[in-house]
Amino acid sequence: MSESFSENLRSLCAEHGSISKICRDIGLNRQQFNRYLNGTSLPSAHNLRRIARHFGMTETQLFSDSSAFETLLRWSPPEGEQSPSDAFLHPFKDQKKRLKRYLGFYHSYFRTPSWEDQIFCSLVRIAERDGLVTIQSREIAASPDHGVRQISRYEGLVSLRGNRLFITEHERAAEGSVAQTILFSAHRQQLKYLRGMTMGLAWRPYPHPYAAKAIWKRLDERVSAREALEGCGIYRFNSPRIDPTVRKYLSVPEIIEGLR
C-alpha cells in the first residue's frame, strides 16, 4: 500500500512542477515529504488530508493501485470537479499581487506572414479588473499604398506560472481568432523588454496559423495613449523607429507557418 502511495505521489508531483513549491503550498517539510516520495514513511491522517486536498483527490484515491491511478489521473475527473469555465479560469485567478509589476502599456513587436520581411507593432495594455489580470491589444496596420488597412482588437487574460507570462486573447470581431503568447524577462528585475513567442492566425494572403518570436517593450508612463497608438503599424526591418534591441531579437524571424 505504501508502495502505491509513493508511486502515485511521484506521478502527481511530476505534473505539478517544483517539489519545493508543492511543499510550500501544502505547508509540509521538504525532508518529510521526500520520505513520502521514496516510500520510507507514510503521512499522518492530518497530513494525508492536506496532500489530498492540494491535489484535488480523495485520500482513498491516493492509495489506488498504480496502474488504476494512472488511468484515474488521465481520464477521470476528481470529486467535486469545477465547471469547465471555472477550471479554465483557475490559472488566471489570484494573480493580481504576482502580476502587479507587469501592469501598464507595451508595444508588442513580431513578424508575421501577413507582412513579409516587416515588423508589426501593436499596442498592449495589462490591467487588473474584477480580480483578474486582463489584457487588451490593438493592431493598426496599412500597406505602403494604403490599399490594405487592418484594425483588430483583442482581449484576454494573463497568468504568471513560474517566471513565464501566459497570455490567452480572443479577437473581438465575430468569428475572430484566438491568440496565445508566452513571454519571459531576461532578468528578474528587468521589465523593460519581455521576450518570447506568439501564435496566431495570419491575416493575409491566407488565414493560416503561424508561430513567431515576439518582444514587448514597456512604455514610459508619460507616454499618452494617443502617442502609443501612433507608434503602431508596419515598419521596414531597418527602420530607425525600431529599437535596436527589438531588431536584434527579431533578426532571425523563426516564423513557423501552418499548412495552407
- Derived structural class: alpha+beta
Strand content: 25-35%
Label the overall shape: elongated
Helical content stands at: 25-40%
- What fold name stands as the CATH topology of the largest domain? Lipocalin
Mean pLDDT reading: 86
Q: Write down how many β-strands occur, each being a DSSP E stretch of 2 or more residues.
A: 10
Radius of gyration: 23 Å
* Total count of helical runs of at least 4 residues: 10
Give me some keywords for this one.
260 residues; alpha+beta; Lipocalin; eight-stranded antiparallel beta barrel
Topology, element by element:
Layout: H1 2-14, H2 19-26, H3 30-38, H4 45-55, H5 59-62, H6 66-75, H7 84-89, H8 96-99, E1 104-110, E2 118-129, E3 132-142, E4 149-161, E5 164-171, E6 178-184, E7 193-201, E8 209-218, H9 225-230, E9 233-236, H10 244-249, E10 256-257
Antiparallel strand pairs: 1-2, 1-8, 2-3, 2-9, 3-4, 4-5, 5-6, 6-7, 7-8, 8-10
Helix pairs in contact: 1-6
Task: Describe the model.
This protein folds into 2 domains: 2-81, lambda repressor-like DNA-binding domains (434 Repressor (Amino-terminal Domain)), CATH 1.10.260; 97-257, Lipocalin (Beta Barrel). Helices cover 30% and strands 32% of the residues. The chain has 10 helices and 10 strands. It has helices spanning 2-14, 19-26, 30-38, 45-55, 59-62, 66-75, 84-89, 96-99, 225-230, 244-249; strands at residues 104-110, 118-129, 132-142, 149-161, 164-171, 178-184, 193-201, 209-218, 233-236, 256-257. Strands 1-2-3-4-5-6-7-8 form an 8-stranded antiparallel beta barrel. Helix 1 (2-14) runs parallel beside helix 6. The longest helix is centred in the N-terminal third of the chain and has 13 residues, at 2-14. The radius of gyration is 23 Å and the shape is elongated. The N and C termini lie far apart (53 Å). The model has no long low-confidence stretch (mean pLDDT 86).
